[in-house]
Specification:
The complex is a heterodimer of chains A (379) and B (314). Chain A is mostly helical and 379 residues long. Chain A is 70% helix and 0% strand. Chain A has 17 helices and no strands. Chain A has helices at 6-10, 14-33, 39-46, 53-76, 84-99, 108-131, 136-156, 158-161, 177-180, 186-212, 216-226, 228-233, 238-264, 275-288, 293-324, 337-351, 360-366. Chain B is an all-alpha fold. Chain B has a single domain, classed as ABC transporter involved in vitamin B12 uptake, BtuC, CATH 1.10.3470. Chain B has helices spanning 2-32, 39-56, 64-94, 103-124, 161-183, 185-195, 197-202, 207-233, 240-255, 260-282, 286-300; strands at residues 139-140, 235-236. The chains are: A mainly alpha (379), B mainly alpha (314). The interface between A and B is large, with 55 and 60 residues.
């Protein structure tokens, strides 16, 4: 075969590859030392608009783990999953039940960090096993419905979940004495511990998934996303592979839930884990690039950064105008939030469906004009 | 026994409104296999238009003869608005994505839904509705239709003019839709396109026009539903589209998506299940019951109540 295949065409030259790797390594190094040298925060403090980036980075890491979790399901296996928040919530509430004073378990953060993913993965298996054979859109509705059911149950089983108040306080993670006594300020120690735990988990997962893409399971997942029928003909059991993807994604979402609730010291109110949250995580993938690891993380940074850093900053800057017009809805930047997200989604789908930072495979696929004879046949 | 009968009446009345929304979902899905997430929010915008018209023309002070003329006119205006808006969204957003992977139009629809919700929030902030500060608050619709019990105030069972208005107007619209789909050229073209767009095109059907017509009809139904809803529930809220849209969509799936009588049946089932579960289990459990039922139904009868098993399109 003398013709170059799609992957070779799509793969970028070695130089840009080296640049990407260098940039990623630089990002990791900067993030490693950031809590000790929060230069961006110093800068914004100096101009009088503190943005607390160092605190918010922990949430961005957790959000990134959640995006990676959904990427396993939507990006790799091609499942149309609209209820990731349910597994996130299950993780958070498992953590709550295992750690708060009220219950006899007192498993602590580390116990919960193991148990929460397991519980969430079991929930994923329970909902997936009977429904994964459904057609794509029907599966989307099942996951959407499952999300609503879980949220309703959490909200209404007040005896167990404390209803709208949420379970709290969730204790701080246990740390070896040498670490715990490294600073006089326990809040600082907790912050540093969670920062590094979340960061290590995020980077570790990214590396694991990067390697997974080259394994038998990883290839089976991608093949499944491309063409389920052909994959089944190759002797791969689509339902089993999808179930693995669903369970892994659900488990990771549970892990994110454990970290999230520990950071907040509460499971937060049940309405946190609603359909909108699931869609926000999906938006991360869409913006970054479905099926792309770096895209998922970039999407999480962009989305969370916009929502929690840029938007409050603009609101603050617009405050004088908004106050002058006595609360005109149009002058409050917050009120434009959904129009901005909505437009971003619509425009992305129209002009850059592969996302901001796609994997070369997805890019090649989406810019491939003629998908071959089979795709045009049939109704 | 009377409680049960009462809840059945409530369920059927609510179900009728869901049915009108569900029809828009199911028709679009039948042709494009697109879950039009923005449909519920289109319905919400329609209800804002209805409330605006009621306020602008000061209908609460009008005589009942004027109302008899004005309310159907508002329904027509809202139907035109809904149909026009739905058609424009299709042209601008979904049409360029016809050959894209399926996730693309779905995500765009979610995006349009966000935009509509935000527009609803802004609409609620207009000076017409009082202080701009509570743009996000629920808006009250003046009670224009009598809520007096037709069976006499002493009766245990309650059927009001409002209930009859909802049922009668929905049935009229559904019959009109049925005639349109069954007995006109356009209806035939729509059915043919839903079955097989490629073959329909080969038979000389302008598939793009048929898709456009489907969006207009679906949006029009949502517009009419929004007027009925505003007059029946008497409140309008910018997030009302999401919840009602979700129930309506569930109804469409329950009945077998793409199937027009199925959507109506599914909506009635959802309405009744909601009413019964809030009576006998507790209103707060309603979503869990409805969606739990949906999941069970899909597991045991994946094609819905009336849907026939469709071969996966390769």
């Amino acid at each position: 075969m003398s013709e170059p295949n799609d992957r070779q065409v799509a793969r970028r030259g070695p130089r840009s590859r080296t640049t990407t790797v260098a940039l990623l390594v630089l990002a990791v190094v900067v993030l490693c030392v950031y809590p000790h040298f929060p230069f961006v925060d110093r800068l914004f403090e100096a101009i009088g608009h503190p943005i607390l980036l160092d605190r918010k980075l922990v949430s961005i890491f957790i959000f990134g783990i959640l995006a990676l979790a959904l990427n396993v399901q939507v990006g790799y296996a091609g499942l149309q999953q609209l209820g990731i928040a349910a597994f996130f919530g299950i993780g958070a509430y498992t953590t709550g039940i295992l750690t708060v004073e009220k219950y006899p378990f007192h498993a602590g953060f580390w116990g919960a960090l193991v148990a929460a993913p397991v519980c969430a993965a079991i929930a994923g298996l329970a909902i997936g096993a009977p429904t994964l054979r459904l057609r794509g859109d029907y599966f989307a509705i099942v996951t959407l419905g499952f999300g609503e059911v879980v949220r309703t149950i959490i909200l209404n089983l007040e005896g167990i979940t404390d209803g709208p108040r949420g379970l709290n306080p969730i204790p701080d993670p246990w740390l070896p004495p040498a670490v715990a006594e490294s600073s006089a300020d326990p809040a600082r120690v907790k912050y540093l511990a969670l920062y590094y735990i979340a960061f290590v988990l995020l980077v570790g997962l990214a590396i694991v998934f990067r390697n997974l893409e080259r394994t038998r399971l990883g290839r089976a997942l991608v093949a499944l996303r491309e063409d389920e029928l052909a994959t089944a003909c190759m002797g791969i059991n689509p339902v089993r592979i999808k179930l693995v993807a669903l369970a892994v994604g659900a488990g990771l979402a549970g892990l994110a839930g454990a970290l999230y609730s520990t950071t907040l010291t509460t499971t937060a109110e049940p309405s946190t884990y609603d359909f909108n949250y699931s869609i926000m995580v999906l938006c991360c993938l869409i913006i970054g690039g479905v099926g792309s690891l770096r895209g998922a993380i970039l999407g999480a940074v962009v989305l969370f950064g916009f929502d929690n850093i840029v938007s409050p900053l603009i609101t603050e800057l617009l405050q004088p105008f908004a106050a002058a017009s006595s609360g005109n809805v149009f002058l409050q930047f917050n009120n434009w939030r959904w129009i901005i997200f909505g437009l971003a989604l619509v425009l992305m789908m129209r002009f850059r469906p592969e996302g901001l930072w796609p994997s070369s495979r997805m890019k090649a696929e989406l810019h491939h004009e003629d998908e071959g004879p089979l795709s045009k046949v049939g109704p | 026994m009377e409680t049960l009968a009462q809840q059945l009446i409530l369920g059927v009345t609510n179900g009728m409104v869901f049915a009108l929304i569900a029809l828009g979902y199911t028709m679009v899905y039948g042709i494009l296999e697109l879950i039009n997430f923005a449909h519920g929010d289109l319905f919400m915008l329609g209800s804002f238009l209805a409330l605006t018209l009621i306020k602008v023309f000061d209908l609460p002070t009008a005589s009942s003869a004027t109302l008899l003329f004005a309310l159907p006119t508002i329904a027509v205006v809202c139907a035109v608005f809904g149909g026009g808006l739905n058609w424009s969204v299709d042209r601008l957003v979904y049409k360029p994505l016809r050959n894209a992977p399926k996730l693309a139009p779905l995500v765009s629809a979610i995006g349009v839904s966000f935009i509509f919700q935000n527009l609803g929030l802004f609409w609620g902030g207009l000076p017409l509705f009082g202080s701009a500060k509570d743009a996000s608050a629920q808006k009250d619709v003046p009670a224009l239709i009598s809520n007096v019990n037709l069976l006499g105030e002493g009766s245990h069972l309650r059927i009001t003019t409002k209930d009859l208005m909802v049922i009668a107007s929905s049935v009229i619209v559904m019959v009109a839709l049925y005639v349109l789909v069954r007995h006109t050229r356009l209806g035939k073209a729509m059915r043919a396109t839903a079955q097989n767009p490629a073959a329909a095109r080969l038979m000389g059907i302008d598939v793009d026009r048929v898709i456009g017509a489907t969006f207009v009809i679906g949006g029009g139904l949502a517009g009419i539903a929004s007027v009925i809803y505003a007059l029946y529930i008497n409140t309008v809220h910018y997030q009302a589209g999401f919840q009602n849209g979700l129930y309506a969509f569930t109804a469409a799936v329950l009945g077998g998506i793409g199937n027009i009588p199925g959507a109506v049946l599914g909506a009635l089932v959802i309405g009744v299940v909601r009413a019964l579960s809030s009576q006998y289990i507790g209103a707060q459990w309603e979503p869990a019951v409805v969606f739990g039922m949906l999941i069970l139904l899909l597991v045991f009868r994946p094609a819905g109540l009336l849907g026939s098993h469709v071969r996966e399109k390769v």
